[in-house]
UniProtKB/TrEMBL annotation:
<dbReference type="GO" id="GO:0006508">
    <property type="term" value="P:proteolysis"/>
</dbReference>
<dbReference type="GO" id="GO:0030288">
    <property type="term" value="C:outer membrane-bounded periplasmic space"/>
</dbReference>
<dbReference type="Pfam" id="PF03572">
    <property type="entry name" value="Peptidase_S41"/>
</dbReference>
<dbReference type="GO" id="GO:0008236">
    <property type="term" value="F:serine-type peptidase activity"/>
</dbReference>
<dbReference type="Pfam" id="PF17820">
    <property type="entry name" value="PDZ_6"/>
</dbReference>
<dbReference type="InterPro" id="IPR041613">
    <property type="entry name" value="Pept_S41_N"/>
</dbReference>
<feature type="signal peptide">
    <location>
        <begin position="1"/>
        <end position="24"/>
    </location>
</feature>
<protein>
    <recommendedName>
        <fullName>PDZ domain-containing protein</fullName>
    </recommendedName>
</protein>
<dbReference type="InterPro" id="IPR001478">
    <property type="entry name" value="PDZ"/>
</dbReference>
<dbReference type="InterPro" id="IPR005151">
    <property type="entry name" value="Tail-specific_protease"/>
</dbReference>
<dbReference type="InterPro" id="IPR029045">
    <property type="entry name" value="ClpP/crotonase-like_dom_sf"/>
</dbReference>
<dbReference type="InterPro" id="IPR036034">
    <property type="entry name" value="PDZ_sf"/>
</dbReference>
<dbReference type="GO" id="GO:0007165">
    <property type="term" value="P:signal transduction"/>
</dbReference>
<dbReference type="Pfam" id="PF18294">
    <property type="entry name" value="Pept_S41_N"/>
</dbReference>
<feature type="domain" description="PDZ">
    <location>
        <begin position="98"/>
        <end position="158"/>
    </location>
</feature>
<dbReference type="GO" id="GO:0004175">
    <property type="term" value="F:endopeptidase activity"/>
</dbReference>
<dbReference type="InterPro" id="IPR041489">
    <property type="entry name" value="PDZ_6"/>
</dbReference>
Length: 470
């Protein structure tokens, strides 16, 4: 007969307990456990939770990314034949990362410091070049002399195409062959070494006053994303700088304003609220900027108002330059100000993101959920802009490519800016509406833009569930 001492029994019991504890921890980290958390969270917060399939139809053993997508409604996002499955969903899931929270260029990763648009430049689909949209101050690109309007024809010795264009997004050194025109020969090359770069949302500000403005003082600002500060949502450095710049606009006696949102894919609702407060007529301060309507399980509507601020310009109207990637919080500003005065849009039809998103996390799991949780409306209850806003003055044909040559803030040669100035002064625009398009004999086709990676899935709501026990 085998006999166990009391000591052996204790050791065996402890061993079994440790093994069970280890298994329990492993089970907590399993795909099934993660997916159960995802399912419960989405059924509570997702705007279209009623469209989530019955649990019996779901595969809880799938990879979390796959499982998450299986929950999403066709109401979420837009049909897009260029993406896998033919539908682009706004709601996203991603692994938690240990990278810095700084909103430096490309989320805190080393980068080259410029944004671009790739173009197909012939009718055969064999010739491509990337147009530089703008360059960040202090970036490797700026230090080597790259500027807006330049064209990148070769990347590391290979002609620009739909594949190597993504090398411009990485953290590796690249050699670029550059010219000053889409059809011009290469004039020089440059080697760019990635670095960490701070990406301030205010790229450029100007004040114009001359005969073309009717001697009115006209403010102009290129604002590229709604970010409160470089170190996350609780950092308000950029918001404070925005207030200061508007205090300067006010001190300079700015009477009219042109806001350039052509490259703004969205961001924080609180930063959008601030910008609207600065631009609104004084009579609108204290009124509703936007309402966030959640699903019936959350049963709440969150209201953001146009708070009174000393830096408010008390404008009579507003001119906004838009692009096809103007979206989310940018559209919330357009929609939020429309009840109070005329908002003129010049450029391209905006994207149409009339929804908001929050970040949902759990200490137990290594994933972040970014579901669409609310619909956004203005003081008049209007939230129906899913197809985007149609501009009052629409950019035609190849004009977007042509305007890529023009320096931002050049009111005499930037067609959209020129038209806005002409509307302010009451004079006709000094530019022939069709003259710019005539220089390109074919229909250039836009391809990938680096702006796509910066697009927000919806207006960002400053909420996190990381302190909530799921």
């Amino acid at each position: 007969m085998i006999k166990f001492s009391a000591y052996c029994r204790v050791c065996l019991l402890l061993g079994l307990l440790c093994a069970l504890s280890s298994c329990e921890k492993d089970d907590d980290k399993s795909d099934k456990a993660v997916n159960q958390w995802i399912d419960a969270t989405m059924r509570s917060w997702y705007l279209w939770y009623s469209d989530i399939p019955d649990k019996k139809q779901l595969n809880f053993n799938a990879e979390p990314e796959t499982f998450f997508r299986s929950l999403l409604s066709k109401e979420d996002g837009k049909n897009n034949p260029q993406v896998s499955g033919g539908h682009y969903y706004y709601s996203t899931i991603k692994k938690k990362t240990a990278s810095t929270t700084t909103r430096s260029y490309m989320g805190g990763e080393p980068a080259l410091g410029f944004e671009f648009q790739n173009w197909q430049l012939d009718n055969t689909g064999t010739k491509f070049a990337a147009n530089v949209l703008y360059v960040l101050p202090g970036s490797p690109a700026e230090k080597k002399g790259l500027k807006r309007g330049d064209w990148i024809h070769k990347i590391n010795g290979t002609w620009t195409n739909n594949s190597n264009i993504y090398d411009l997004l990485g953290d590796k050194t690249v050699v670029l062959a550059v010219s000053d025109g889409w059809n011009n020969p290469v004039t020089h090359s440059m080697e760019l070494v990635p670095a960490l770069i701070e990406d301030n949302p205010v790229l450029l500000t100007e004040v114009y006053q001359d005969e073309s403005t009717g001697n009115k003082k006209v403010g102009y600002m290129v604002y590229n994303h709604f970010t409160s500060g470089p170190d996350g949502d609780k950092d308000t450095t950029y918001d404070k700088q925005l207030r200061q710049r508007f205090a300067e606009f006010k001190a300079e006696g700015v009477e009219e304003f042109i806001l350039d949102l052509r490259y703004n894919g969205g961001g924080l609702v609180t930063s959008a609220q601030l910008l609207a407060e600065l631009l609104a007529p004084k009579s609108a301060l204290g009124e509703i900027f936007c309402n966030l309507k959640y699903n019936d399980k959350q049963d709440k509507t969150v209201t953001y108002r146009l708070d009174k601020t000393d830096e408010n310009l008390d404008l009579p109207r507003l001119f906004i330059l838009t692009g096809s990637r103007t979206a989310s919080a940018s559209e919330a500003v357009i929609n939020g100000l429309r009840p109070f005065y005329k908002v003129y849009l010049l450029g391209e039809q905006t994207e149409g993101k009339n929804v908001g998103s929050i970040t949902l996390t759990s200490d137990k799991y290594d994933y972040e959920l970014h579901p669409i949780v609310c619909k956004i409306s203005n003081a008049e209850g209007n939230s129906e802009y899913k197809d985007g806003f149609i501009p009052d003055w629409k950019l035609e044909g190849n004009d977007r490519m042509i305007l890529g040559h023009i320096e931002l803030g050049d009111k005499d040669n930037d067609k959209l800016l020129n038209v806005a100035v002409g509307m302010i002064s009451g004079r006709a625009t000094t530019m022939n509406k069709d003259i710019r398009s005539s220089s390109v004999s074919f229909n250039a086709i836009p391809g990938y833009s680096s702006l796509d990676r910066k697009a927000m899935n919806g207006v960002q709501i400053p909420f996190t569930s990381e302190d909530v026990e799921w």
